[in-house]
Specification:
The chain is of the alpha+beta class and about 525 residues long. About 25% of the residues lie in helices and about 30% in strands. It has three domains: about 25-80 and about 350-380, no CATH class; about 85-345, 3-Layer(aba) Sandwich (Rossmann fold); about 405-524, Sandwich (Immunoglobulin-like). The protein has helices at about 95-115, 140-150, 165-170, 170-175, 180-215, 245-270, 315-325, 335-345, 385-395, 400, 475-485, and strands at about 25-30, 45-50, 55, 60-65, 70, 75-80, 85-90, 120-125, 130-135, 220-230, 270-275, 325-330, 345-350, 360-370, 375, 380-385, 410-420, 425-435, 440, 445-460, 465-475, 485-495, 500-510, 515-524. The chain has a six-stranded antiparallel beta sheet with strand order 6-5-4-13-1-15, with no helix packed on it. It has a six-stranded mixed beta sheet with strand order 9-8-7-10-11-12, sandwiched between helices. α1 (about 95-115) packs antiparallel against α2 and α6 packs parallel to α7.
Length: about 525
Amino acid sequence: MASTAAPQTQSKPVPLASSIDVRVVNVDVTVTDGNGKPVTDLSKEDFEVLEDGQPQPITNFSLNQRKVSVSGSSGEPSPAPRRKVIVVIDNNYIDARQRSLTLDTLDRFVEERFDENSEWSIATIGQTLDIVQPLTNSRAKIREAVAKARKSGTVSLRTDAIDREILSDPFRRSAKSNGYDYEETVRFQSRERTSRNERSLANTARGLTEAARSYSGVDGKKVFVLLTGGMEMNTSFTAYDNGRDHEMNDRKTGIAKLIDQIVLEANTGNLAIYVINVRPSDMAAPQHDVENQAWGGRVGASSTGETDISDVDSAAFTLAAATGGLNFTSNVVRKSLDAVDAMTANYYSLGYGPQHAEDGKYHAITVRVKRPGLKALHRRGYLDVSPDVQLEQYLRLRISILQPSNTVAVNVETKSSAGPDGKPIVQLTAGMPWQQVTLLRTGQQYKGRVHVYLAVFDKDGTNVGFHHQIQDVVLTPEQYTEAVKGAFRYRMSVRLEKGDYTVAMTMRDDLSRDVGTGVQRLRL
């Protein structure tokens, strides 16, 4: 351990060296023709990119296809970045029978069409997110993960629909009939269904937010394939809604905020959401506003990708449209999976340099295709946060111990003892090769800086502790000669309750930004 400056926790330490950061915002764009088929013969000049309404020069351009990526500047083929496909099974909106049929289809798709140049992850959402399988290019591991997902719990939301006659009979709507208040009955069911939908969507939003943060730092084309059911916002009846039901209005506002949260996180992580509808026709909380929608809530969209944008109240459509994905409502899962496969295997990567610093604000993105008759799918914006903030968010999540970073080899040693109050005190030592620490020669000293992150998780994978320490390193030439032969080590102590834990210590070199994580399990 370098015996130099004491550990620091300052948020913005003085830079070790002056540098010029070249920032690029990447936008993945899928372009389709009038039949929903990918278009792959466009050049950089065919696109226009705007941020917050202002045109941006396109500095990076490439066409990415299943096998090769053709550069827009040189035309030379190069290996395409691996697609990252995260299949999310939303158990809040799928019953066990429908899910089983859907996963049968997914198994067949993996067997027949899985591309080993892609990486897949399987996750389920109940009350929380469970990443059953982190990213892998192993077909066998994906099959095993799908089998595990079959055993997760589901929440059946089926219910009996209100008699259509009640909804369309103007006499029953306008007055009490035979002493029975049909109007209040319908309003009660509207409030009940909307409340139920908000509770379910809260679970889904929590899971998708964590999933987006989990994969935000991953390179390559990133896709959420969301297998879900009736995620619709039209759970009230306009004909009976007088606008004065404050409870209903609060529920609708809550649902809109949840959707905005998912969109923000997905866009910040550059993740496109493809929503595949697997619900049966009698799923609860259907879109059933009979004044302007067909009974059963089916949006006029086909598995080729054409979506009826008049359905402005569809949560699934909003998630897809705002993140560069598609909403498939035909309930033909295999055709939808084939369409997702084709769309995500053929796309353009556009890059531009934003004219502002990392300001923590949300910035809107618009991509226009100059050739008529074409449609561009892309994320609609991003939250401009620093890579340091994104890293800290990631390290607080369970995925960071399931799939730890290995750019830098980090090992962790632990030693526990009893404190004065009987609670265990754990001594943690993290080490990495000195060669991974970038040291600058300044006069008669070598200077560097290492960031050390400690994350503690309980037996359920919940983060129960997090620390970020900064260690400045100052070595004389003699110390430098000896140090580079061994390892840089950092020690810290934590006090924990008795129980089972997983601790992860992450080390990041300040200048090279290389990161590595070591993981240890504890039983105290």
